[in-house]
Amino acid sequence: MNAQTQAPTTSRPPAATGAPRMTEALVSAITAETGIATFRTKSPRRIEGTVQADALHSFAAALRSRVGFEHLSAISCVDWIAEGEFELVYHFWSYRDSHLVSARVRIPREPGSMATITDLWLPASFFERDIHEFYGVVFQGNTDLERYILSDWKGPPPMRKDFSSRDFAHEHFTFKDYEPTWDELIDGGYHGQKRQGEGSDE
Amino acid sequence: MAEKELTQRTAWDKVLANLRKRSLWMLHYCTGCGAVELPPTMTSRFDMERFGIMPMVTPRQADILLITGYLSVKTLKRVILIYEQMVAPKYVVGFGSCTINGGMYWNSYTTIKALDRYLPVEMYLAGCMPRPEAIISGFNSLIDKIGKGEANSWKDYYENYEFYKKNQDHVFGDIETHHDVPADGRYFGILEAKR
Questions:
Q1: Smallest CA–CA separation between A170 and chain B, in Å?
Q2: CATH number at A14-152
Q3: CA distance A139 to A123
Q4: Which one of B101, B109, B172 has the shortest CB-CB distance to A176?
């Protein structure tokens, strides 16, 4: 097995070691090494930018090996239902520089489909399973997209904006009728007054 | 078996109930925030063991299953597995508003609303969350019920197993607990008595 097929790699890239760099130096390094010029300083030690969906895999690989962001911190998802898009946010962390890079990717909501990055970071599978189960995004190339937290779930992906948790709960579960009488002991009580008011109407 | 023996409490039943009510071992399934009220209830401030109630670590030796708070569908499956392992007589106590009607999770898509649709609940402790005084008061009334031989809701799980199974299947699809509930009911003489 040679080094190219042995993925994901566990050795640290050379760019991940050395003296910490300043934020401006990192922004220019990201632009130079990955060829994507949208990244800007968002706040101290945070860099943010947008990446096209088909360019994300090569961007992440270059960010890891040539800039030194070796840790995938999280993948999160936002449902922009009015625009018909999902926004995936990939967070990369550099131990060398203590900086976080957030790469925003917009994909169409139907069909929500994205290339996996589990060949670069195996733990990305955890986030991709999570997003698949809560948003219904399919990660092409990820072979393990089974149910994780919602193991017995049969409804639609519940974190989508068009899913109404309240309606689902009322359709799916049965509530008890609740007619409290204990509050009549305390100066008539709200429900007690309501019952008396109903009686006087008759 | 004679009809009289099954319907009337024999003297031995009364002795047994009086012994049983003084030694209740409790498995507290701490899923929700209500569990924080249990340490003061158990320890020296309120000292639950005055009443013979003691925490127990295994379901097989426990008498009380205390559900302290909300249950998600995934957790409910584990609770049902635990409940079926317990040896009868067993008492499920729903603790806090969440077990009664969902509590503050009433519009959540993944928590169950009424615990007594899935397990036979002997008693509810209302409150969000009940204070140790309320817990001890509730357990005292449970002790009285057991002493009078009125705490029989566990038999309902065998008698109306179709009802509970139907509700369990409704949230899980099809649940396989690897436990022969009707055989248990026949062992305790409950299903035989119905025939």
A1: 8
A2: 3.30.460.80
A3: 14
A4: B101
